[in-house]
Specification:
Elements lengths: L9 E3 L12 E3 L1 H24 L2 H12 L8 H7 L3 H5 L8 H4 L3 H7 L6 H4 L13 H17 L2 H17 L10 H8 L11 E3 L6 E3 L23 E3 L6 E3 L25 H6 L2 H11 L5 H11 L24 H15 L6 H17 L6 H21 L7 H6 L2 H8 L8 H12 L8 H26 L5 H5 L20 H9 L23 E3 L2 H14 L21 E5 L1 E4 L2 E4 L10 E7 L6 E15 L6 H10 L11 E12 L11 E7 L7 E3 L3 E11 L5 E7 L7
Antiparallel strand pairs: 1-2, 3-4, 5-6, 7-8, 8-12, 9-10, 11-12, 11-16, 12-13, 13-14, 13-15, 14-17, 16-17
Helix pairs in contact: 1-2, 8-10, 8-20, 15-16, 16-18
Length: 728
């Protein structure tokens, strides 16, 4: 009886291997993969030939696909194809043919020549035959579809398209955009990003999945293992979202429990929003009220202090909830209470041991809610939570410890396995749901489908821009298109000479004041607003500090005042461009005049007067601005370029500097609140100097503040540093 060699156990149905009575041949695994890749490549070539009307290319692709041994195939290809069923059937009796028809295990696994994947990977996923060939028209279509996706709702897109088409008609262009957003998305290939998204219906009894586009039965027809009848769970259509769901919802043991290798405990994500902010803070507050640690007069005093606090934009202000004893608090409000208010307000209310134990929980939350977190920080947060739970057992009776507090100790494993909490906590879903309501999104589209489409579109916008730049080489459109993406790195545009934004350098600049930062270092393209204010002149008082800053930063005392421009070419202009805000990796900073004080209170590190200590100073951003400045060439700056580069002109100086003009509060050496990480300073500003001109790269984090009056009637300001948000 004939046997098939172990290596030749894959059926190949390609054109070369199917020219026999069976319609397939047994080949090696890698050979089958190589044949399939070549067949797909030829199919793509045929499709392109049809679209571009190239009969010669079509005939060539057809010939290559149907020839038994393709042109350019390696010897191993030929040998593998020749191993048909007839040849294998005689393999046992013909030892002399084993060398020609068999490949050693080492050869088949390591030495087989693979088909180059670059041809397949280089295919443009957004290429469509409807896109215009004119590069200007391609740019218009690409810009409009991306702009509409980011800034305009559906009805506004139609008006925008009509406006663009009217301009094209006025300027006698032979091109018009499709009149609807779906048509524009199909023409540009934008809809190809989300065409694979489908909606499914899941029976919440037996968990059978139905595709919504297909006909869904009124009752679930799945028959469980060993059962005599179907599940028969009723499937209905809800009126709110239009999504099909199971009418009944019961909790049964899933068949996944039978899988010995599946760790359901480790594979279950703990939602940090409910675990940290909707559980423990409320339970402890109820306990403090019950034990009379906090009385009615304390709530009134805390509310009075809370009204003086300035909270950054990413946190919710508790205007009246504290005085009402925290009634009807939401997760966002509990988050603000834990991170901002409680370290200040509970200091003089709780007993010392209970307050210090509460700070363990606060310190853990400060670390865990960061969008970017290190493994050391995760371990530190776990130690804080472990200490907190242990001390709760000692300070309160045993009934204070519930399952939710036990789950605090599993958050470390959750973050290690699934990443920072911003990837899965339910804050994101609730905020996005509110955004959909504000935009009055079509209710026929389910929330989950809309969320997935939005996410995939944002991910692939960079690919769409890269596709446009590679096909048209219109590098002048690069700055405008990058404003419509969250982050962008040009793939193969060597003509764009610019310094690349590096996250590690940016983090070092904000954490270490010894790092030299001048203000013209790269920032993410999405850092700046879409529209800038008109250029204006800097006040004479502040301009003096800007001039002094450049003298210190570039170590050049030859720079002169702009009023002396006729005497020296090396002067500093007084023209600046004000920014409404700046968004650096998700952290938004604003000037004092843009939104009151919210978003304008920050901290930055400076080297102390002795040069030995690093001190964090608190200040208020007055305004954010950009300024153009090119330092005069010096021999010391040109020598390294000439020594390390053949063409020094390739290194271009970035003349645009981005600064924040900050007034710094007068510091005070008070360590009485160091345990709860609350700092103290005077509510007055220090005299202005050149250090008021601060590169935005050096801003460390946002802070919240509160007014405080000592027993001696001295007014001070309490500063609460908050976790820095960096979405990487």
């Amino acid at each position: 009886m004939s046997t098939i060699p172990e290596l030749y156990n894959k059926k190949c149905h390609c054109a070369g291997c199917s020219q026999n009575d069976l319609g397939y041949s047994f080949v090696a695994r890698r050979t089958a993969q190589r044949h399939n890749k070549r067949a797909r490549l030829n199919a793509i070539r045929c499709e392109r030939a049809i679209l571009t009307h190239q009969p010669g290319a079509l005939e060539e692709s057809y010939t290559q696909t149907n020839s038994p041994v393709w042109e350019g195939a390696s010897m191993s290809d030929t040998e593998d194809v020749s191993v048909t069923n007839d040849a294998i059937s005689n393999g046992d009796n013909d030892d002399s043919g084993s060398n020609s028809n068999e490949i050693s295990e080492d050869e088949s696994e390591d030495d087989v020549i693979e088909l180059d994947d670059n041809e397949l990977n280089s295919e443009d996923p957004f290429a469509t035959p409807d896109m215009p060939q004119n590069p200007v028209h391609r740019f218009i279509a690409t810009f409009v579809v991306m702009f509409a996706s980011r800034y305009v709702v559906d009805k506004g897109t139609v008006v925008l398209i009509e406006f663009i088409n009217k301009l094209l008609t006025i300027y006698e262009q032979d091109f018009q955009l499709p009149l609807s957003l779906p048509g524009l998305q199909r023409m540009t290939g934008f809809s190809a990003m989300t065409k694979g998204i489908k909606k499914f219906v899941v029976c919440q009894d037996c968990h059978k999945v139905y595709e919504e586009s297909a006909s869904v039965p009124s009752h679930c027809d799945f028959v469980k293992l060993g059962a005599r009848s179907s599940c028969n769970c009723q499937l209905t259509k809800t009126s709110a979202s239009g999504a099909l769901v199971a009418k009944r919802s019961y909790l049964y043991q899933s068949v996944l429990h039978r899988l010995g290798y599946l760790d359901l405990v480790r594979g279950t994500i703990i939602d940090p929003m409910h675990n940290l902010f909707l559980g423990t803070p409320k339970r402890l507050m109820d306990r403090w009220i019950k034990d009379e640690d906090i009385q009615d007069g304390d709530f009134a005093a805390m509310q009075k202090t809370a009204e003086t606090m300035i909270v950054p934009g990413g946190y919710t202000s508790l205007n009246s909830k504290i005085g009402k004893q925290f009634s009807y608090m939401k997760a966002d409000e509990w988050k603000s209470w834990v991170l901002v208010y409680s370290p200040v307000l509970l200091k003089d209310v709780l007993a010392k041991d209970r307050f210090e134990n509460w700070i363990n929980f606060v310190d853990a939350c400060r670390l865990l809610i960061k969008p970017t977190i290190t493994f050391d920080e995760v371990n530190t947060a776990h130690q804080f939570l472990q200490t907190f739970c242990t001390r709760c057992d000692e300070l309160y009776n045993a009934e204070i410890l519930i399952c939710n507090m036990h789950l605090h100790l599993h958050l470390r494993d959750t973050i290690r396995d699934f990443g920072p909490v911003y990837g899965y906590w339910l804050f994101g879903f609730e905020r996005f749901n509110g955004l959909l309501k504000n935009l009055k999104t079509n209710r026929k589209i389910g929330f989950e489908e809309t969320f997935m489409k939005k996410f995939i579109e944002d991910v692939h916008k960079d690919d769409l821009v890269n596709s446009f730049l590679q096909s048209t080489h219109q590098t002048s459109a690069f700055p405008l298109l990058t404003k419509l993406t969250s982050s962008f790195t040009p793939a193969t545009i060597p003509s764009i000479r610019q310094r690349t934004f590096r996250i590690q350098s940016f983090v070092e600049a904000s954490e270490d004041p010894n790092v030299l930062v001048k203000g013209n270092e790269p920032l993410p393209p999405s850092a700046f607003p879409l529209s800038l204010k008109s250029a204006t002149t800097m006040s004479d008082i502040h301009y003096v500090h800007l001039l002094q800053y450049y003298k210190v930063a570039y170590n050049n005392e030859q720079l002169v005042h702009f009023q002396q421009a006729s005497e020296s070419p090396y002067f500093v202009d007084n023209t600046i461009t004000l920014l409404k805000y700046i968004n650096i990796l998700g952290q938004v900073y604003k000037g004092k005049g843009e939104s009151g004080s919210r978003g304008s209170l920050v901290q930055a590190k400076f080297i102390g007067s002795t040069g030995e200590h690093i001190i964090a100073y608190t200040g208020q951003i007055q305004y954010i601005f950009t300024h153009s400045f090119t330092p005069p060439p010096t021999s010391s700056s040109l020598t390294p370029l000439l020594r390390t580069h053949r063409r020094p002109t390739q290194l271009l100086h970035n003349s645009q500097h981005t600064f924040a003009f900050i007034k710094w509060y007068t510091p005070e050496n008070d360590k009485s609140r160091e345990y709860e990480h609350v700092e103290t300073c005077f509510p007055t500003f220090s005299p202005d100097d050149f250090q008021c001109v601060l590169p935005v790269h050096r801003i460390m984090l946002e802070v919240a503040t509160a007014e405080h009056t000592t027993r001696r009637k001295v007014k001070k300001m309490l500063v609460i540093p908050l976790p820095k948000k960096q979405y990487i």
